[in-house]
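Not sure how to ask, but would you mind making up any protein sequence you like and the tokens describing how it folds?
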Amino acid sequence: MRHVEKTIVLYGGTFHPFHTGHRQMILSCFNELNPDEIWIIPAGIPPHKKMYDEIPSDDRIQIIRRSVFDLPYVRILDLECRRPEKSYTYETLRFLSEKYPSYHFVFLIGEDSLDSFDRWKNPDVIAELCSFAVCIRSDSDRESFRKKCLFQSQKYNTRFQPLGMKPVDISSTVLRDYLAEDNPKASEYIAEYAYRYIKEHHLYEKRADYIMTIEEIEEDLKKKLKPQRYEHTLGVMYTASALAMRYSCPVDKAMYAGLLHDCAKYMSAEQLLSFSHANGIEIKEQERESPHLLHAKVGAYLAGSLYKIDDPEICHAISVHTTGCPNMNLLDKIIFTADYIEPGRTKAVNLPEIRKQSFMNIDLAICMILRDTLLYLQNKGAEIDDTTEKTYEFYKNINDSAMRKLSTTLTYG
């Protein structure tokens, strides 16, 4: 049996910026596990990402240092920040395991990281080098959380230990918004000396031309959406970019709209209704009866208010991606189509033909999508939005002859 000299908890992340939620994870872990030390390892600057361009790693480390100076068991390691290339967790663990062969390492993560662990690079290698301490989300069911930890423990033959944690209702994305807007609420979630450092060095101040990057939005959505929904979102983004190149539409606009089209899908029916009421979003009778239909409108609102997208075409494409609308513009068509044909979709009838037509005649593809959608909803006896029916009539009229030619090869639900 290997002699264990020390138990070290490793806590990695972007810490953009470090806030009270991060500190609470550290406190909960130390109180429950009583390790010898906790090492914070801020992520470096991946060359292909832009999210840290305005906040150098030295500043992020200074913010962390001022947030945990009173915790004697905490160390800050800058080894990932010093690397010129992209850092991966398995590489960091290999380096530390070779340098400290008698230490037992425990990796501290949140429940969101537990859900996405299968998608980490070389998760099997990581599991061989450490165990895990996992903090629960504030809104999670404790029993299902415990079962998820047990499942991953058995799958990877290591320990995923569930930890209780006092909930802190803040995210780095919201906190960056507070700082950019000079909202004093930011000071409630950042340690006093860290907050002073941010203000004195003018960090996170909003530029007139600032919009969130694709990478920043991906980071936020990965935490909010269920894994399957997040994978669908990426599929729509990349499919939309391919369609944009085919039809000479700005690729960046298609990527933003595709990435954000389901950004409100994490909300429950009650939350969608409540959010719409609170923000003056029109609610049709069909949407009141089937509140999930509101996710497109709410998503368009969030794109502007939360993700800082000020392009009306992007927001409009998000708002109509489910129902479509008569006489859609090119970006509307691309997002509506990409949502239906992205690679993760497998169950809809006529998908091969629709995918083919999407890159040949997108109007005809839209007509086929609408026809099959209406047939599917009719067969289920589900509520049909009248906008979908109007949109189908519009595109059927301009594709009537083409649809007749295809009718012998299509499956009718």
